[in-house]
Amino acid sequence: MSTVDRSVSVIPTTPPADATILIVGGADTGRAPMAVALLRQLLAEQAPTCCVASAGVTGHDDDPPEVEARDAMAAFGVDIAAHRARSISAELVQSATLLVAIDRGIAHVLRQYYPTARAKILTLSELAATERDIPDPFRMQVGAWMAYAHAMQQMLTDALPHLLTHLIGAPPEPPAVPILPEPPVPTPTLPDTLPRTAALARLERVLAMLHEMPDLLDWPQVQRQIEASLQAIASEPVAAGDLALSYTALLNTLVHGANAPLYPHQVQMLQTAVARLHQPIDQLALNELAALLAHWYQSPNIEHS
Q1: What is the rounded distance in angstroms from the CA atom of residue 82 to the CA atom of residue 42?
Q2: What 3-state class would DSSP assign to 20?
Q3: Is 174 exposed, middle or buried (0-12, 13-18, 19+ CB in 10 A)?
Q4: Residue 24, Cα to own-chain centre: how many angstroms?
Q5: β-pairing, 98-101 with 20-25?
Q6: How far apart are CA 248 and CA 230, in angstroms?
């Protein structure tokens, strides 16, 4: 049996000229365009014809890059001022050779809404063989953006051999660390005696009825019941650092702005989001909610199967 010398990192041969790497972020105004600029620098010699672009899952079309992202990239000798954000779409997913999610929350959303593309969806941390994602530095000082830019550059450097192997289509070597599984739908973990548990139970009953018999319910009344339950939940943090207030505020904004009964896919998104409230809300849960709700206004005629 032949053996492979793994002591030397071997860069694969050049990818096809039409290979496209699509880096997917949240708003496509911060980490994603930064990663595009840094990756283009790394690919300049080894794969100069490879197209590297970005998109986002939260619908900030035509927004310019964050000022801090622009300034951080200027320190790397790259001008990203002309970048404009765009939303992910089925066409972009289909045309991409490889989709690189900027973090695990984004990857989870992509795999949920584009299941036929799962084989070509990876996270930057998976490609770099690390368990660490680059946090979103939104509203942080430019110094934090610079620090994350340097960390991203190192992750992209580590990811490059594995990334090129994927583009060529050869079986990639397994990462040095296990790929983390997708976060499962949380199961109830709060004691039954907590006021938040009672509010959750009421809310879940309302959503179940809205899902099963939408035409028989009075939407304004249902809307008020949902908003009241979310407000009750927000007033009952269950642990230090519980971000339920921000989480429910985002849900309440969407429900309050709906002038007509929700579409079935919107009810399902609310049910998924509410299930997460059976546990304390952390920053990852907030990021996943923001990514999931990027599809809130999507046409109900679009199929995701």
Answers
A1: 20
A2: strand
A3: exposed
A4: 8
A5: parallel
A6: 6
Res. 2: pLDDT tops 60: no
Q: Per residue in 24-51, pLDDT tens?
A: 998 899 999 999 999 999 998 888 889 9
**What secondary structure letter does DSSP report for 169?**
T
Bridge-based pairing of strands 98-101 and 121-123 is parallel
Q: Is the pLDDT of residue 181 over 90?
A: no
Query: What structural domains and CATH numbers belong to the chain?
Result: 20-168 (3.40.50.2300), 195-295 (no CATH)
Taking each helix axis from N to C end, the angle separating 244-256 and 219-234, rounded to the nearest 10 degrees, works out to 170
Predicted local distance difference test score (pLDDT) of residue 1: 41
By mean pLDDT, which of 12-21, 173-182, 227-236 is the weakest? 173-182
pLDDT digits (tens, 9 = 90+) for 87-113: 999 999 999 999 999 988 888 889 888
Query: Which strands form 98-101's sheet, in the order they lie side by side?
Result: 51-56, 20-25, 98-101, 121-123
For residue 305, count other CB atoms closer than 10 A to its CB: 4
Q: Give yes or no for a contact between 130 and 151, defined as CB atoms under 8 angstroms apart.
A: no
The structure tokens 């997913």 sit at 93
Residue whose pair of structure tokens reads 């990514």 in the numeric block: 291
| DSSP class of 56 | E
Q: List the structure tokens of 30.
A: 């911060």
DSSP state letter for 87? B
230: its two tokens: 């979310």
